[in-house]
Batch of 3 targets.
Target 1
Amino acid sequence: MNAPHIITFGCRLNAFESEAMRRHAEAAGLSNAVIVNTCAVTAEAQRQARQAIRKARRSHPERPLIVTGCAAQTDGAAFAAMPETDAVLGNVEKLNAKAWRRLAQALSHAECSPPGDEPAPAVVETEKPVMISDIMAARRLAPLPVAGMSGRTRAFVQVQNGCNHRCTFCIIPFGRGNARSLPMEDVIAQVRAARNAGHREVVLTGVDLTSWGEDLPGQARLGDLVAAVLKAVPELERLRISSIDVAEIDETFLNVLAQEERLMPHLHLSLQAGDDMILKRMKRRHSRAQAVDFCARVRALRPDVVFGADLIAGFPTETEEMFANTLQLVEDCGLVWLHVFPFSPRPGTPAARMPQVPAATARARAQTLRAAGEQQKRALFDSLLGETMRVLVERPGLARAENHAEVMVPEALPVGEIVRVRITGHDGMRLNGVAA
Ligand code: SF4
């Protein structure tokens, strides 16, 4: 019997939600479906989704093709208009078992209608089922039927969704709605389920993770959640945090990071730029100096910490001097794992209406930033030669270190296990390790 064929774009949140959709589709009798879970962060991500849809239709002419995800939420009509698609689901509907049952009915030619007490989705005038409700009306985050991630050694657990900020370049809030948190007891249950399913590492993920708890009763923050998870699931060896906002991180989190070796020494920072004028025009909540101070402080608390960061190159109005400040930030903060995006104007965002930097300049600056990150990575790797590290073997011959580095290891080392290796070299992108 077929299993749903899921094509996932974008972030860990989408990867986690694809796992939930697999179960909903199977339960609704849509095991033969092709599901494209899209991303809207850049124009390129949307172009790739359309390309994947056309390719999937050619490869699977008989199977129902369903489009969902942030690009479907923000631009559903465009995907419904594609001859290759059979249905479009919004980001609330994709995680709703009832919506999948309705969809199965609709695809078997029953009339499409809104699922029970949920707000009526905007119906696009096609005979295709298009179920997209107002994402800003979403208030709650319910636990998803996911106990582990098939085919992965590390499990993602969604603890937060949506965002209340409105950075001027960002379309995410329009795809995912306002911030909402999964209650602590549900997070603990999901982490325990992932550990019981055999995952030695869990990654807590969300859109604006550091806002976790703000919408829940009480004053709990991300640090409290992390401390509670580590206490409640002592058998979990490795807990990792996906991405944080330096302006919002709480003191408890930093204390746990300083004291708890099961919290991985790897922080991915949503910095975006290293120039104060650009940060202001992005409507970010931190300054350049705050970012540098934060990294220095965390390094003092947890010397083995390694930072990653999101950076945008060529944001509107960015001059060579402003870009130089962002480039220098890579060194000033010691940023190793860089996710660099040439600015991509998103329809409807304020930044799309600002004076644009030529696309070629943005791409060239992105290349320069990536090169600076690789220099930091080489320096880190050189400093680790001869060290013994605990790594999680992710697939034959490849493991993940606690600081997020990829380590090439002997194929004989068992997948899914945490082993000790001695670092013998590197190729600038990955470390080499032998069993210690
Ligand atoms: S914090 Fe800003 S960049 Fe991040 S999701 Fe929210 S609006 Fe987008």
Target 2
Amino acid sequence: MAAAYPWLKSFHIIFLVSWYAGLFYLPRLFVHHAMSEDAATRQRLEIMERKLYLFVTPWAVLTVVLGLIMLFGYWDGFKTQGWMHAKLALVVPLVVFHFWCGHLVRAFRNGPNPHSHVWFRWFNEVPLVFLVLIVILVIVRPF
Ligand code: HEM
């Protein structure tokens, strides 16, 4: 495990960056989708949203799987670390946010706009808040 650990952590970070590319871009597409009226633009956005969601979901899964392998590989060390518990408490709603995006991709395809473009502009900021909090926790380790 010790020899593999730096590789696990490297790919954990590589996959989370890839995942975040989608978490930042998909809500942006929802903003444009909620503002667009013409059918051709809406259809193109539907295709982009579905392809992007399917593209980033494996990176989300791999980020979590590699994180869990490292976590349980060194559980005795991490179980007393407050920052790790706080991090995991933030990762759960982030994963929910990811699947909520999947639900919105389908909602746009199956009916009228699920929310206004203003609502999606706020929705678009959510992943950034999680990223800032999680990165500060794992690097600064304040508690
Ligand atoms: C269930 C999901 C996750 C688990 C179980 C997990 C677990 C871990 C573990 C055990 C480490 C190694 C820490 C160390 O070596 O000291 C780590 C590193 C890291 N994780 Fe995660 N993680 C998860 C999700 C995430 C997410 C969603 C992010 C970012 C948004 C993230 C960001 C990081 C970063 C930046 C590091 C490197 C920290 C360092 O260099 O010490 N992780 N993670």
Target 3
Amino acid sequence: MTRIRTPIAEELGLEVPLFAFSKAPAVVAAVSRAGGMGVLGAVAYTVDQLREALDFIDAHVDGKPYGVDVVMPAKYVDGGAGHDAPLDPGKLEAMISPRHRAFIEDLLARHEVPALPEGENAWHNLLAWTEQTTRPQVELALSRPIKLLANALGPPPKDIVDKAHAKGVKVAALTGAPAHAKKHIENGVDIIVAQGTEAGGHCGEISTRVLVPEIVDAVGPDVPVLAAGGIGCGRQVAAAMALGAQGAWTGSVWLTCAESDLHPLVVNKLLAAGSRDTVRSRALTGKPARQLKTPWSQAWDDPAGPGALPMPLQFMLTADATSRIHRFAGQPGNRAEELLTSPVGQIVGRMNQVRPVAEIMSELVRELEDSIRRMTAATR
Ligand SMILES: Cc1cc2nc3c(=O)[nH]c(=O)nc-3n(C[C@H](O)[C@H](O)[C@H](O)COP(=O)(O)O)c2cc1C
């Protein structure tokens, strides 16, 4: 494979400056084997499940560099405990109004989604989304041969940055605004992921093409910036590098690859969706996140409704409902499938077939090379 050299790719030992965020261990291992860096999203894992996922990656990554991503928000509801005192889930549950609970039951009833059968448990409703619940994930991740620790929301706490650095692990942080990027650097973060509004998941309002040069200029030439949001082909990676980024951080494009572990009906929805079928909504986590436009997001965005709750309460409120929707979607006698959703970016319009990671990577690199060659030729 051709080597695409940027300072951060060299430093991390990558063949190509392409980072792939995914919750699927098989995707992470495959992208790293293919010369990029797979980054495992830990948010939806219990510590035991995360241990299993990391065992899988360590067994299948052929010693190639990979990373772990956590969601440790700077701002969230902690029930008055403070960010460094134990959380009281009961106190948080009490902050969820009966109106919100009734609203969800009504939404499920209108789509004939049954309750979970006796003995079946809903997904854990407070896995991450707070510093207290994410710290054990970080401890575990730092006990593995990771090369990168990334945080989704805000500057990671200084002690965690120091712990990672003590293990020779680079720290990255996502941001949608230049001011936040500077704060990250002050907190010891090494790599800035400039995430534009096109991105799947939590995102700001500024587009990637506008945001990346602003952040590159704000943090200076010595800080590696990765562009994120709306990148799913080689030309878009080339564009990111032309904007001053040292590489691309991608997420959505891996949701429909062969190694993805997403619900098959969600995959079908993504394959059928166009770039106008996403919306930035608080419906999933309480913070603005780009996702498929569905009756779920429309219900939560409806001004007549109670509105989404702040993080982590929205996930606590909806975890049971989401489990039921996933459990019954596609079965006769209900319309749960309509409520099935996923965070996804505007790049979804390009995700039209299921292909293995290796094929997506080699096509991406080929097109990136062509773009670089074409632009270089333009100067001759
Ligand atoms: C399904 C999904 C879940 C995501 N969850 C997280 C997360 O837990 N942590 C995080 O840092 N970013 C998360 N992201 C954002 C990605 O890391 C990445 O920045 C984004 O997908 C890039 O834009 P793109 O979707 O246009 O490729 C998520 C993205 C998607 C699509």
